[in-house]
Amino acid sequence: MERKVTRKPGQRQTGLRRTLSRTWTCYLFIAPNMLGVLVFLAYPIVYSFYVSLTRWDFVSAPRFVGLDNYVRLFTADRLFWVSMRVTVTYVLMYVPAVLVAALILALAMNQKLRGIKFVRTAIFVPVVTSMVAVAIVWVWLLSKDFGLINIVLRAVGLPGVGWLTNQKTALPAIAAVGVWKSMGYNAIILFAALQSVPRLLYEAAEIDGANSWHKFWNVTIPMIAPAIVFVTVTSVIGAFQVFDQAFIMTGGGPGDATYVYNFYFFRQAFGQLKMGYASAMSYILFLIMFASAIVQLRLTREAAAAAF
Known about the structure:
mainly alpha
């Protein structure tokens, strides 16, 4: 027979006090972090949405206008659509390029070669370098008259190119700089995923007669798919937020070739002091990035379900 253990009221109260004491101790430890989140994240998000419903220039008091800023953006602002088109084009250039470059680097780092440890460290240097410094260096490298790249082209008999002054090459040029800057970070993530692929799977594929391509496509890619999804989603989010290269290297030009969304947002907020209008732009960008991330995750989940 089972023996029932009964606790006295005093024992139950003591246990309850200990539980509450441990709970409050945990809350006290996370309180500074939560306070920082509330003050520096939650409050600005809520307040910026309120500002997006107003007309405010930092000088006069905010005047509530409802959804007027959003309506004007979609119906009466040509530059909104221009900047959105340029930004989407940049995303389509940048994301596939950085994914392929990072994957190639990760595969190279996964080889057992002499000096590979130095290479693994060196490719991360651009990641920790300020984008401002990187952009300034690349402005010199891509200069039409004095740039090192054009000097090399002329040395082999090819004409120099106005990389940053030609409307056809300006956006690809700043996309290439973005890829060079961030591919090391993405390569490290993919390299970590490659390190976790069991060697047994490759050996089994070799027994079945698989060549290098078959092993890469049927073993490597499925096994590192979660890392590829992470890199893709974060790259899309980062690409939609491009600003530094366009601001420093081209100033949004030539014409509107590099007039990206965040550059237009910056000019509205800090050039013309249209804080309500700029806040509405920021929320539209947030919704676009959120929707793109959800679509990517859903498509990836469906593809994974179909594959397995």
